[in-house]
Design brief:
Length: 460
């Protein structure tokens, strides 16, 4: 089967990535400016959407500082004006992605296509050419730190691995499309790289995973947490598992530690999105480095003002320096990121970031002073994770004094967890100045997942 791969492009991208991985900060800054200038030249010439946006702005990279941010819905509404290849038409791409038989197939013989999950409210369609895929391959291959270095040295082709991707397998989502592409690029791995649907009945998923006995599981943190609970409850046995690869959702330090303990494996987290597949990677010191030689992230507050390192952002604006077919320039990604001001002990000059991803809803409950009190989703998740040990849950707000907590557990285990959760949630709300709240419980309910398999744990 055909797929998107160009050996020359991959070699060129690999050299560029390798040479910048340990470059000095000023060299990385120079690469950014050079690639930004080249990108702006292309979009001014080929994208009528961006040509309009840049009208009246300076010609060089300085124009970026004056450009207003763009949003996904706006870009999708003007898709045919946005892209730089006139052969790309939104309606034709939608028809292409409507057919699941096309997952991983090249579109027009030269593009890989995937959909976004729509967790930010507006689903999108993203196309990648051979250059873009070569860049992602090089970033993953050169910078993702090997968990078992000796194993990688003696088995560079991964012939001794059994890799299980646990996610959604009936849509054109980036993670699944790239797994299918890998199977086609490396047919000798086709039998040892398998995908398992997270949306099938849980009993069937557990049976399939146990039969496959993976050495590596790649999934979302919430899905991995579910598997960890099943292993802890002795309903799933994964004796060969050595590594867990997570991404796509927020991963707290507590959840990470619990996953490694339950699954008996080392976890490596990454940062990516439908817009840029390989934005961040973890070094051996456990820090997340941004691939800033190829992607610019500008953290901003709720008023769209730039933030200095050390301050958590309300959102970030993304500029993709490697995609000249479907350019993303000052694109409002919606993620919450903090740039760490301290240098990383690993010695790499690429920026260190802390990622909270796209948060769930902020709940607003009645306050004792008559004003609504916001309950932040990160805080609610933290108290349940750290105080109760709950990682697979959903909180839904019924009214300004009532929350509904849904747990997949049943029986005495579920009742005990619900009682503990009710205590910590009501106490946390009281500490924030809220009137007394009620926490209703619903047991035996699996956490709902979106089209891409991501969970939404806190809903207003």
């Amino acid at each position: 089967m055909a797929t998107i791969f160009d050996a020359w492009q991959f070699g060129s991208a690999s050299w560029a990535v390798a040479s910048a991985t340990h470059a000095r900060p000023e060299a990385i800054d120079a690469l950014q400016r050079q690639r930004l200038a080249a990108l702006l030249e292309v979009v001014r010439d080929r994208s009528s959407f961006y040509r309009d946006r840049f009208k009246g702005l300076p010609a060089g990279p300085e124009a970026l500082l004056e450009l207003q941010p763009v949003h996904r819905r706006e870009l999708m509404d003007r898709f045919d004006e946005w892209v730089c290849d006139p052969d790309l038409k939104l309606e034709e791409l939608r028809h292409f992605t409507a057919d699941h038989r096309n997952i991983g197939e090249p579109y027009l013989g030269r593009y890989l296509v995937w959909e976004s999950s729509g967790t930010s409210g507006s689903p999108g369609i993203f196309v990648q050419d051979a250059h873009c895929m070569a860049l992602y391959d090089a970033l993953e291959g050169q910078r993702r730190s090997a968990v078992r270095l000796a194993q990688r040295l003696f088995d560079p082709l991964g012939l001794g691995e059994r890799i299980a991707f646990v996610g959604v397998t009936d849509g054109h989502f980036a993670s699944y499309v790239t797994v299918e592409r890998l199977r086609r690029l490396q047919p000798w791995m086709a039998s040892s790289v398998r995908s398992f649907s997270i949306l099938q009945p849980q009993e069937a998923l557990l049976a399939q995973l146990q039969d496959f006995s993976p050495t590596v599981i790649a999934s979302y943190p919430s899905a991995a947490a579910m598997l960890g609970q099943e292993v802890a409850g002795q309903r799933l046995c994964l004796p060969a598992l050595r590594e867990i690869w997570t991404g796509g959702e927020t991963l707290s330090a507590v959840a990470r530690h619990r996953l490694e303990q339950q699954l008996g494996a080392v976890l490596r987290n990454s940062y990516g999105s439908s817009e840029f597949l390989a934005m961040g990677w973890e070094c051996r010191a456990g820090r997340m480095h941004l691939n800033s030689d190829w992607v610019l992230l500008e953290p901003v507050d709720e008023h769209q003002r730039p933030l200095p390192p050390g301050e958590p952002s309300a959102s970030v604006w993304l500029t993709h320096l490697g995609n000249t077919v479907q350019p993303l320039i000052r694109y409002d990604l919606g993620d919450h990121v903090r740039f760490v001001p301290e240098a990383c002990p690993c010695g790499c000059a690429l920026p260190v970031i802390e990622v909270q991803g796209r948060r769930d809803d902020t709940l607003r409950v009645a306050g004792v002073n008559g004003r609504p009190v916001p309950l932040l989703p990160l805080a609610l998740s933290t108290v349940l994770e750290e105080c109760v040990g709950l990682f697979d849950f959903q909180i839904c707000q019924k009214d300004d004094q009532t929350l509904i907590l849904r747990l997949p557990m049943t029986g005495e285990e579920g009742r005990r967890a619900l009682a503990q959760a009710r205590t910590v949630l009501t106490e946390y709300a009281r500490s924030q100045g809220a009137q007394p709240i009620r926490v209703l419980g619903e047991l035996g309910i699996r956490v709902p997942r979106g089209r891409s398999g991501k969970s939404c744990r806190i809903l207003s």
